[in-house]
Structures are given as structure tokens and as C-alpha cells.
């Protein structure tokens, strides 16, 4: 297995990928059909998605986060101690607008819809129970 594939698998493990997904990744990386054409360049993002990925990365720090209690226990003084868990509820649209304007990114209806799709996927990933 090439060093790049080993590194990709190590990165996936550090990111918390489950065992079944890691096995699928290993299989895909070792498959003969995975070899790319020598003239073909692949950087992981299809050209049609570059505008929305660029926009998303420009505002990727603009999240609205709340906390929720994950249970509790009685404190010695009689109150409740409840550990909290952060919950990402979505992008802060005012911050997103300011960020996109600052980057000079023109927001079309298509870009906005695509950005919302990425937002929903990111929220699901952030809030996934591990």
C-alpha cells in the first residue's frame, strides 16, 4: 500500500472513522480500479463545487452553538450538576453575510442553496454522537 494511502487511513482513524468504514476505505484504496489516469488530476473537489466550497470555507467559523445538559447528578449542596454538551444549530447568517461580503463572494440563489446543503451536512457531522 502506498504511503499516501497509509497516511489517508491514519488520518481517518484520528478523525474517528469507525472500523467498518476504515475497512471500506482500505478496500477502495487497494482496488485496481482506483488507479487514476496519469493525465488526469484529481484534487478532491469537482470544479462545479469549487464556488460553494470556497464560500463555505470563507465562513466556516460562523457557527451558532448552544449547550444542552446530558444528564445530571446531585451536588453536595443539594443542587444539580449537569455536564453540558455543545450542539451546533447552524450558521449565523448575519456573520455569513458579512464574511461573504468581505471576501467579495456574490451570493446567488444557487450558491445559497448549496451553502445550506453543506451547512446541514456539517451540522449532522458536528452533532453526531460518538
How does this structure look, described?
- The structure is a single chain.
- Helix content is 48%, strand content 15%.
- With 130 residues, the chain is α+β, with helices and mostly antiparallel strands.
- Strand 2 (73-74) and strand 3 (80-81) form a beta hairpin.
- The two termini are 29 Å apart.
Secondary-structure map:
Layout: H1 3-14, H2 19-30, H3 50-58, E1 63-69, E2 73-74, E3 80-81, E4 84-91, H4 93-103, H5 109-126
Antiparallel strand pairs: 1-4, 2-3
Structural class: alpha+beta
Mean pLDDT: 82
Low-confidence stretches: none
Largest sheet: number of strands, sense, barrel closure: 2 strands, antiparallel
Dominant shape: flat
**What's the helix count?**
5
Order of secondary-structure elements? HHHEEEEHH
Helix content: 40-55%
Amino acid at each position: 500500500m502506498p504511503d499516501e494511502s497509509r497516511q489517508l487511513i491514519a488520518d481517518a482513524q484520528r478523525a474517528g472513522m469507525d472500523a467498518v468504514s476504515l475497512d471500506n476505505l482500505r478496500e477502495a484504496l487497494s482496488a485496481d480500479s482506483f488507479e487514476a489516469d496519469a493525465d488526469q488530476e484529481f484534487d478532491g473537489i469537482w470544479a462545479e463545487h469549487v464556488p460553494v466550497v470556497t464560500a463555505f470555507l470563507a465562513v466556516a467559523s460562523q457557527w451558532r452553538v448552544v449547550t444542552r445538559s446530558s444528564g445530571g447528578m446531585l451536588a453536595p449542596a443539594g443542587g444539580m450538576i449537569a455536564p453540558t454538551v455543545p450542539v451546533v444549530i447552524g450558521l449565523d447568517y448575519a456573520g455569513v453575510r458579512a464574511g461573504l461580503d468581505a471576501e467579495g463572494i456574490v451570493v446567488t440563489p444557487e450558491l445559497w442553496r448549496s451553502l445550506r446543503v453543506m451547512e446541514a451536512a456539517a451540522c449532522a457531522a458536528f452533532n453526531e454522537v460518538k
